[in-house]
Design a protein that fits this description.
52% of the residues lie in helices and 13% in strands. It is α+β, with helices and mostly antiparallel strands.
Length: 200
Amino acid sequence: MSAITAADVKALRDRTGAPMMACKNALAEADGDVEKAIELLRARGEAQAAKRSGRDAGEGTVQSYIHAGGKVGALVEVDCETDFVARTDSFVAFARDLALHIAASPTTLAVTEDEVPAEDRDREARIATEQAADRPANVRERIVQGKLDKWLDEVVLLRQKHVNEDKYEGKTIEELRAKLAADTGENVVIRRFARFQVGG
């Protein structure tokens, strides 16, 4: 199997507008063949779902989850384009499962990578740089980037695997969101969330 680089994934994303993880998975499945990867993304509806991402999502739902014992809870707002889709069982179930995930994920800072506060990102980069200081100069940058990526996987909601891995087969929140967008034919946006913990 050919090695898939970040540049390959970005190029595919630029061509299709599909989510990064979907592009990476399609390239892996297509053994690096870009045209075949595009075909896979189109067949799964992920390329079309990305085209919808610019459309206005002015409808939606707010769902909550309170963990047994009432010590931890979460609220989440998930938006779509029409009231019809907002009231469907699959849309509401997605939002509820998302609230459960957020309640179970105390490290989550932001919905998207762009929303991660710059000072938090800079702090993690400094820590990673210090930890890699004793490594050979030619691999330091890769080590720092790897540590930063791992941290982003923990704090960015869309990059996280759903906590119910059995039910969702280890898929990320972004993959689940993209599938819902493909299934409904609408732009689906995770707008915001809040997590509450007694004494936290």
